[in-house]
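Input record (Table S2, row 267):
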Amino acid sequence: MDNAELRERAGALFPGGVSSPVRSFKAVPDEPVPIARAAGARLYDTEGGEYIDYVAAYGPLILGHAHAAVVEAVGEAAAGGTAFGALSPGEVDLGKRIKEATGLERLRFVNSGTESTMTAIRLARAATGRDLVVKFDGCYHGHSDGLLVKAGSGVATLGLSDSAGVPESIAAGTGVLPYNDPEALAQWFREHGDETAAVIVEPVAGNMGVVPPEDAFLEALQTVPKQHGALLINDEIITGFRLRYGLSGLLPEADLVCLGKVIGGGL
Ligand SMILES: *Cc1c(COP(=O)(O)O)cnc(C)c1O
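Output record (pyridoxal-5'-phosphate complex):
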């Protein structure tokens, strides 16, 4: 099957011919590239066309594609069964390695980064008994309803839904502030400090290009919410095990940490 035929068959099955909007190439004058296999840093389409992979499956493949040691380990694990719906030695082994590398006290495994941020927010709301959550414009935390929000006008605003299908009432539970702006954070907490459960942030913003955090912003994130009894959720889904082995180290005072991408290795 060549590239054109594969695109045609996919178009008959999936909206946009792909399984995620970013893969559709609708924003650029080109068609989706179908990838049939990959090795190391190279991707190959169905016609043998070769590409250098700068995407790495959007983050997880820090070791590249099909490294021999990874293929062998995955094969061995698969031969013993892949899902049990029960406690298993593999999860304890992985949990222990993550704990040793990050210093996190306790962990819970879920299926995706989206579920991890969604769960962290639910936990923060339950622990504080408050409803509002603050995020920063340009940061991405997965596609749960309450996090698909954008900034309205003004410096510190309640969110507007960023997608059809997200009710305004749900978007309004999320405040959206400018990144790297400690004064906007302080202003938010002066106005909504008693109602705010948590602040969620990417320690280095990786979803609007790469925007490094300023020291004063990191300082405010770790002090202002705490002064008002709110929690800090550190979303290290991109930065974890990528900036270095373990956490970025930029937000040591965070209450909850989300990991994803690299720790799943693309599986
Ligand atoms: C990718 C990403 C998520 C969502 O993870 P999924 O596994 O795609 O659901 C959340 N937060 C950040 C910072 C991410 O980069």
